[in-house]
Amino acid sequence: MKKTAALLCLVLTGCTSVTDVTKTGRDTYMVGVTVRMGVSGDAGATSEAIQAANKFCSTKGQIAQVSGTQSSGTQGLTPVGSVVHFSCVNA
After folding, report:
1. How far is CA 13 from CA 6, 7, 32, 34, in A?
2. Cα–Cα distances in Å, from 4 out to 8, 36, 69?
3. Rounded Cα gap, residues 38 and 13, in angstroms
């Protein structure tokens, strides 16, 4: 049963890992997402990273303002990753 669940994760959605938000400057942060063997490309990984940034900023009553992104990997061949650089601003 556990093997079936793991296989289903890999085939249908891929397995996604999200890093902890890291402070990179006075008011700037970064968060990364890696998607393995899924149907989501770099746009999907970037979207998930932005969602993680917004979740982080929402704990401060703010929203994420993205200042840059970096993508890596090739969908279907290697894990796809995205790093989002952001700051938290008032909505």
Report:
1. 11, 10, 18, 12
2. 6, 17, 34
3. 5
Q: Which has the minimum average pLDDT: 2-6, 15-19, 36-40, 66-70?
A: 2-6
Amino acid at 55: K
Walk me through the domains of the chain, giving residue ranges and CATH numbers.
2-89 (3.30.1360)
Give the pair of three-digit tokens for residue 54.
């917004």
Give the tens place of pLDDT for each residue, 8-55: 444 545 688 999 999 999 999 999 999 987 666 788 899 999 999 999
Query: Can you tell me the distance from the alpha carbon of 87 to that of 56, in angstroms, rounded to the nearest whole number?
Result: 10
Helices (H) and strands (E) in the chain, counts: 2, 5
